[in-house]
Structure prediction request, 631 residues.
Amino acid sequence: MRTEVRILLVGDDQVGKSTLITSLIKETFVPNIQHVVPEVTIPPEWSRDKVTTRIVDSSSRADNREQLEAEIRKADVICIVYAINRSETFTRTHEFWLPYIRRLGRNVPIVLVGNKMDLRGKDVTNDSLEEHVMPIMNEFKEVETCVECSAKQPLNVSEVFYFAQKAVLHPTAPLYDSREHTLKPACIDALRRIFRLCDKDKDGVLNDDEINDFQGKCFGAPLQRQEIESVKDVVRESEPDGVNETGLTEIGFLYLHTLFIQKGRLETTWTVLRKFGYGDDLYLREDFLWPAIEVPPECSVELSSDGYQFFTELFQAFDMDKDGALKDSELEDLFSTAPDNPWTGTGFPETTITAETSGAVTLQGFLAQWSMTTLLDYKTTLAYLAYLGYDGDTTQALKVTKPRKSDRKRQGRVQRNVFLGYVFGATGSGKTCFLRGLVNKPFEETYTPTTKPYSVVNSVEIGGDEKYLVMQEFGSKYDSEVLQNRKKLDACDFLCFIYDSSDVNSFAYVAGIRSKFQVDHLPCIFVATKSDCDLVPQRYEIQPDVYCRNLKLPVPISVSLKHGMTADIYSTLVGVAMDPAIAMPGSKTSSPSSSRMGLYITVTAVSAAVLAVLLVYRNVHRPSAAVSTSP
Prediction:
C-alpha cells in the first residue's frame, strides 16, 4: 500500500501557490512570504489515510524551468493553481499547463485550484463554473476535480490538499468513465468478483447476514437492521432489479458503488477494492497473491488444518446438487473468481479420485489435488487461496515441513503428511498404469507413451493416519535429466524403479540408470509389473532379487496392474517415505522398521502367489474357444 503522497503546485506567477502552502501550515494568511517556499512534510498521523504528505512549491520563471520539470517528473499529483480574478491564468491551465505536463510524459492526477475566490465577482455562479471546467475535464481525463479556495480568508485551503491526496489514494480514472457516467469494465469485473466471494450460499443475492459480513470485513462495523433497509430502499428507488425479497442483487451492488463514486465518495469503493487485494491498476496485488513465506532447502510445503478446512468448505459450498462430487459446471463456478482452473493441461481430473459413474471430482480427490498442488508448487496454492476468498493471511493455510535430510539422519518416523515419489522405468514397463492404479482409474490396454511429466495423488491410510501420496513419471526420454538434477531429487521422498517381469531387457534399464547417477542418498523401491504373465530371466549380470539384496534393499515387489493385484503397494511406498531407512541403499539397520518392510514384502509375495494360482485355475477351466492374451 502507498505510504507517501507527493503534491506539486504549479501555475503562473502571482496566483498564490506559496501563499496557499503557508496558509495551510500557519492556519492563517501570511501577507509577505518568499517567492518559493521550501518543501513541507506532513506526518502520517495528521492525514486521514495515515500517509506521509510532501507538498512542493514551484516557480514558473524561465530560469527555474529545469527544476520545475524535475519536480513534475517526481510528483504523484499536480495542482495547477490559477487566480479567479485573472481569467488569463484560468485559460493558461488548459492552453499551456496541461499540454506541457503531457509533453513531459507524465500521466498523474491533476487538480485545478481556483485561488482568490474572495476577489471573484458576485455574478459568477456554480453553474457557470461547471460550464467552464467540464469541457477541460472532458478533454483532459487526468483532471480529477476543480476546487475553489481563498488563501487570504482562509477558505477551503485544507480541502485543496485533501482532494489532491485523495486523487492519488482514491483515483477516479480507473473506476469511472466521466464522459459516459458509467463504471469502467475493469471496475465492474472486480466488483462482480467481490460480490461472488461475499455470496456465501451461492444464491446470487447478498442477504442481511452476508451484507454485514461484507461490512465488517471492509469497514470494521456491522450495519443495524434499519440501516440495511435504508440502503435497500435507496437501491430500490432507482434500480428496481437491484433488490429482491432475499436481499441485494449484483445489479444493486454495482449501482451502490456507481452512486458512491458519483457522490464523490470514491474512498468507499477503493476501501472495498483494497480489502479484497486490488491495486490502483485494478489487478490483484502481488503481495496479496504471493505473501512472503520462507521455505528452506529440502523443506516442503503442505496445507495446514486451516487450509484443509477452507477447501472442504469451498467444496461443500459449490456442490450444489449435494451429491458429494463436483461436476464440470460446479468446478467452473468455483473457479469463476480466479483467472482459470489451475489444473488445466495437467490431465485433471484423471490425476485424482473421481466418482466412478459420473467422473466428477470427489471431496477426497479435491483435497488430494490441492495437497499435490501445494507440494509441487505452493505459490499456485497461495494465489488461489486469495482468488477463492480465503479470509485472512493466506500463509496460515500452509505449513513448512522439516528438511528431508534431517528426517533421514534421525532414522525415525517422518511427521509430514504429503509424500512425493518419482517413478522410473523402460518404455512399456507400465509406469502410467502404475500411477493410474493409485487413483483407481481402469487399466488401459492401449499403450500410449509418456511425452511430458504426469502426476497423480491420492490419500493412503497407514497406521490409522491419512497421508497423501504424490507420484510422478517423466517419460523414459527425461529420466536421466531428472536423476542428474540434484535440486529436483532433493524434493522427493523415494525413487520407484519399475520393470516388466515378462520383458528380458526391462530390468537392465532401471539398474543401469540407478547405477549411473548418485542416488544412494534416497530410499529406493523396485517393482516388477505384469506378474500375471510368464516370468522370464532378465538379461543383466545378476537377477533383480540378488541385485536388491546386494544393495541391502527389499526384493522387487510383484504386481499385476491389469488385474488390479497391487498387493497394497501404495501403502508400502508411504511406509518407505515415513521410514526412509528401511529402503536406503546399503543400510544395515535392523530396526523394527525393517521388520515392517519385511512384512510388506511377505504380504506382497503371498498375494502374487495367490494371483498365480487363480490365473492357472482360470486357464485350465477356460472354455476351449477362449484365447489367452497378455498385456
